[in-house]
Amino acid sequence: MELSAKYNPSETEDKWYAYWLEHKFFHSEPDGREPYTIVIPPPNVTGILHMGHVLNNTLNDVLVRKARMDGKNACWVPGTDHASIATENKVVAKLRAEGIEKENLTREEFLKYAWEWKEKHGGIILSQLRKLGASCDWDRTKFTMDPELSEAVINTFVYFYKKGYIYRGIRMVNWDPVGHTAVSDEEVVHRDTVSKFYHLRYFISDGNGNPTDKYIIIATTRPETIMADAAVCINPEDERYHWLKGKKVLIPLINKEIPIIEDSYVEMGFGTGCLKVTPAHDVNDYEIGIRHNLPVVDIIDDHGRLNEKAQILVGEDRFDARHKIEGMLREAGNLEKLEDYTSPVGYSERTNAVIEPRLSMQWFLKMDALAKEALESVESGKVKLIPDKYRNTYRHWMENVKDWCISRQLWWGQRIPAYYLPDGRFVVESTPEAALEAAKKINPDITAADLKQDEDVLDTWFSSWLWPISVFDPEKPGHPEHRPNADLAYYYPTSDLVTGPDILFFWVARMIMAGNEFMKDIPFRNVYLTGIVRDKLGRKMSKTLGNSPDPLDLIDKYGADAVRLGMLLCSSAGNDILYDEAQIEQGRNFCNKIWNAYRLVSGWKTDDDAVQPQASAVAVRWFGNKLSLVLGQVEDHFSKFRISDALMTIYKFFWDDFCSWYLEAVKPAYNTGIDRATYAATTGYFEALLKMIHPVMPFITEELWQAMEPRMAGETIMLQRYPTAGECDNTLIGDFENACEAVAGVRNIRQQKNISPKEPLTLKVRTGFPEWTVPVIEKLANVNVVIAEFSGEKASGVTFMVKTHEMFVPLTGLVNAEEEMAKLLSVIEYQEKFLESVRKKLSNEKFVNGAPEKVVAMERKKEADSIAKIEAARASLKALKGE
RNA sequence: GGGAGCAUAGCUCAGUUGGUUCAGAGCGUCUGCCUUACAAGCAGAGGGUCGGGGGUUCGACUCCCUCUGCUCCCACCA
Asked: CB neighbours of A658 closer than 8 A, spacing ≥ 6?
């Protein structure tokens, strides 16, 4: 077979993925083996693959494939998340583009559109993951709104309600005026935002609602809310304003009379020291309002517009209103001055709308008991966070957690199973039938038609926190006494979870809570937290910046293996990765390197009569030992989740040790056959290497493994056992490294003296050098090695050191004595300084007595080595001088 | 405002209880090569007072203090 000089991924990737699917290699069923389980962080059902997904799912896949090759029963459960607010927004936007407003639709009509959208776009991302090579058990694909998973969510709600953890109440919540829903504290991101600080004059009332000529100045960033003011507050200690006590002031423009109150919350040094209190639209003001029994005037509606209670600017958007009221206040003489002002403003994570603090009736889940236990799970080490530094963050959050607002004013999601009686009382049951039964206990006359179900749906995270349980057994959550389920018993707890730190609290912490509550066990043992993918300037990838490449384009251009390697190359756990297309190119180059190594080996013809050359025998012996050494290192890296280290170790082993040294050492001369022993060893090593690389680069390794020799139908590299480390002789490996250094030394001389690699040279070494490696040196350096003394002839050649072994290349007529002497002098100078520092240490009694014996012995060896080097250099110098 | 973390080669980062000749890797750079697997390649080379200062120690990239610079998280938008 004639192979092209370049690897072509597009010809192989789809073929092998189809082959893997056809033979159901990804599918897992419980059996006697040790399970290895990962649940996918479910991407949004309508999402498309971005670079963050690529990083995350590549890591997942590497872990799963490695575990599978280690003989474990590996199961990676895929699925998608209904992402209520994000998806509902997309559907609303799409309908709007078609001229349909959500407000004009019934809940049922809207949900029909939403499901259509989901059917059309849902799962695109899952098919994109296939392109990446993800070895998910697709037969187990789940969606958080699958009927049985939704049922689990409802049962969970009922469970916690009956346990007394869920309550309903009017609270100040984070209102998203674009999504028209409350969002949890965790879904609000604060960003410093430039705005204006408005200094407003509030005139003192004469007692009859008329302004006097006296006024106070109040600084606010939100002049559009003044109509909702319930009071003006001063600090009781603030002598500047004692004259105000008991007085009333008038709200500008609407001339509404409000009292002056005193509360130590007000900081005298901030602003003007006078605070307008707007209980309906500010969390702190709300607290003050409660303390002082102030009325709550809510002047902003669901959409962020002023309502009729505002009296003026009714129907205007809050930001338009802010702009307009500025002019009105100026005209009315109430605007003292304007300042630029930067302050943190809360934005909705999903819609990027400025959050409006707003009072509303919501459902909450009590968190204290759940958080306490979830904190313990991590503190005790039962759940390990990787990297460990996130434990601090985790602890801080768990110790300061507030109750979780779980209701959302949306339609796309699991509807809250609370049913209201006409008198306003309600029952919470998992089905309408059960609700009716419960309602009849309150009022026997109630009929099904009288019961009205709550309009809200549950926060998406209220379903995804069940994910590690519900993908295996949706009946379990909320049913502590439920019947056993073989899948859940086998796969739970899952092994590792790979996800981003941005959802440590949203998702990870809450899964731990749900696991503890329903399984009395943690949901996973290790949480590997990836970094955020940034561009090479360190900016987050975003649509608006346009700095995020489409992973599918990259896969088309470079191949999935290259993309996978590129993403993993410099991604250590918890560190952001700076994406640079050059890394993907490096991945592609590595594919090409593997491909060409295969081209070389596959072109060899075995010759039964050929005797194994000595150089080959040496190389085979060395490489076997090195393989063991490297496998040990790789295993160690994997066990510590140092994926990029494992990868780099394998990368260098293949490129440097295998290609540059081993293959060059055993490569037969042109048009010459290769002996059987060397060929067998080489293909064995190559196969081991392909297996080592497979978890990271599944496609090319399958392609070459299949091509190496005829395979049975249904055979695959992905189910081969990962090679394991055997014994390794470190002395032998060290000897070979010395040989490599000797080769490099000769090559260096060739370059400096401009001697062609084709011109044979002589290399003289003294006895003591490990002679067994000589054949390799001779072959790779194109030298004739002579073991002999050479002190007398140093002037007519070049010497160099390999460790403490002095080597000599006779080069009559090519030696520049001045240059050589200068080199030697600098060596002597360096070594003398070094020797001095070593001797200083050794003459220090505290060191000799205090340091471990091993360390002292090492210092003595340094001393001896240094002396040897100095002596050798001096001898050479003497020879050059002709002494 | 509170908390956490980071600072090592031009770039991205390792450096695992303070002690192997420990100052490293990859990429990039420079030099020489179209050598019959690979120029997406081969061979060789250069490059850092480990952010500044102080301390502990026989010994500090590693531990402590301090300064400077950066990042992230949390936090009620006067």
From this structure: A597, A623, A685, A686, A689
Please report, to the nearest 10 degrees, the dihedral formed by the alpha carbons of residues A405, A410, A415, A421 taken in order: 90
CA A617: distance to chain centroid?
45
> What DSSP state is assigned to residue A6?
S
C-alpha to C-alpha distance for A318 and A96, rounded to whole angstroms: 22
- One-letter amino acid for residue A281 of the chain: H
The secondary structure of A570-611 as a DSSP string is: T--TT--EE--HHHHHHHHHHHHHHHHHHHHHHT--B-TTPP
| Nucleotides of chain B touched by protein CB (<7 A) | 2-5, 11-14, 16, 19-21, 25-28, 31-32, 35-45, 57-59, 73-78
A173: tokens are: 């919540």
- Is the separation of the CB atoms in A743 and A731 below 8 Å? no
Q: Answer whether the bond into residue A387 is a cis peptide, omega within 30°.
A: yes
For residue A277, CA distances in Å to A15, A102, A263, A291, A876 come to 68, 35, 11, 12, 90
- Return left, alpha or beta for A870; rule: phi > 0 is left, psi -120 to 50 is alpha, else beta: alpha
**Interhelix angle A13-22/A124-132, nearest 10 degrees:** 110
Name the percent of chain A lying above pLDDT 90.
67
The token pair at A67 is: 């575990």
Q: Across chain A, how many H-helices and E-strands are there?
A: 28, 29
Whose C1' is closest to the CA of A588: which nucleotide? B40
| A50-95 residue pLDDT tens | 999 999 999 999 999 999 999 999 999 999 999 998 899 899 999 9
Is A848:A863 a contact under the CB 8 Å cutoff? no
Q: Looking at A425-514, which runs of residues are DSSP E strands?
A: 426-428, 452-453, 457-458, 494-499
Residue with tokens 């505290």: A846
Strands A494-499 and A418-420: unpaired
Between the CA of A503 and the C1' of B25, what is the distance in angstroms? 32
Strand B contacted by A270 CB (< 7 A): yes
Tell me whether the omega of the peptide bond preceding residue A493 falls within 30 degrees of 0, making it cis.
yes
Q: pLDDT by residue (tens digit) across A792-824?
A: 888 888 889 898 899 999 988 787 888 888 888
Assess contact for A289 and A265: CB atoms under 8 A: no
| Nucleotide closest to A863 measured between CA and C1' | B21
Distance A182 CA to B75 C1' (A): 19
Q: What is the mean pLDDT of residues A160-165?
A: 96
User: What interface predicted TM-score (ipTM) does this complex get?
Assistant: 0.95
Does the CA dihedral A185-A188-A193-A195 come out positive or negative? Answer: negative
Measured CA to CA, the distance from residue A673 to residue A667 in angstroms comes to 10
> Which A residues 490-549 have CB within 7 Å of strand B?
502, 505, 536, 538
Question: Is residue A438 a contact partner of residue A429, using CB atoms and an 8 Å limit?
Answer: yes
Which positions ≥6 away from A570 have C-beta within 8 Å? Answer: A577, A578, A583, A644
Helix A551-558 and helix A51-69: axis angle, to 10°? 60
Query: Cα-Cα-Cα-Cα dihedral of A505, A510, A513, A514, to 10°?
Result: -170
The reply to whether A264 has its C-beta less than 7 Å from any atom of strand B is no
Q: What are the angstrom distances between the C-alpha of A146 and each of A40, A321, A860?
A: 16, 44, 71
State how far the Cα of A392 lies from the Cα of A401, in Å rounded to an integer: 14
